[in-house]
Amino acid sequence: QVQLVESGGGLVQAGGSLRLSCAASGRTFSVAMGWFRQAPGKEREFVAAISWSGGATYYADSVKGRFTISRDNAKNTVVLQMNSLKPEDTAVYYCAGRPGGINSSPSVYLYWGQGTQVTVSS
Fold first, then answer.
1. Contact, 5 vs 23, CB < 8 A?
2. Selection from 88, 59, 78, 86 nearest residue 20 by Cα
3. Which residues contact 41 (CB under 8 A, 6 or more apart)?
4. CA distance 5 to 9
5. Where are the beta strands (DSSP E) in the chain?
């Protein structure tokens, strides 16, 4: 079992930056990690994912070039650095984990955090 806790959300103006962190505990070995987001009235959507080793990353087209995912396995932490934020990035952001390789489908992730709100004002 893996427990995940997100932090770092908040309110920021368009063009600004935020850094989300996900602290993992439990059996984290060989767990790929992902970030997803869900806006009001919309389905949960993929944002970014990173392999256990950190050697492979994958981004949604909507955030490519603006967001960066990274992990520090020694600290059991996954970070999503978000730059050049837009109002359409407003959502609750969730950290998720799954044994095996990275994947963009939320249905294959077993472990989820409680979410952190990100609001981008125009």
1. yes
2. 78
3. none
4. 12
5. 2-7, 10-13, 18-26, 31-38, 45-50, 57-59, 67-72, 77-82, 91-99, 111-112, 116-121
Give the whole-angstrom CA distance, residue 27 versus residue 2.
6
Other CB atoms within 10 A of residue 68 CB: 16
Token reading at 93:
């952001």
Q: Tens-digit pLDDT profile for the chain (122 aa)? A: 899 999 999 999 999 999 999 999 988 889 999 999 999 999 999 999 999 999 999 999 999 999 999 999 999 999 999 999 999 999 999 999 999 999 999 999 999 999 999 999 99
β-strand pairing of 2-7 with 18-26: antiparallel
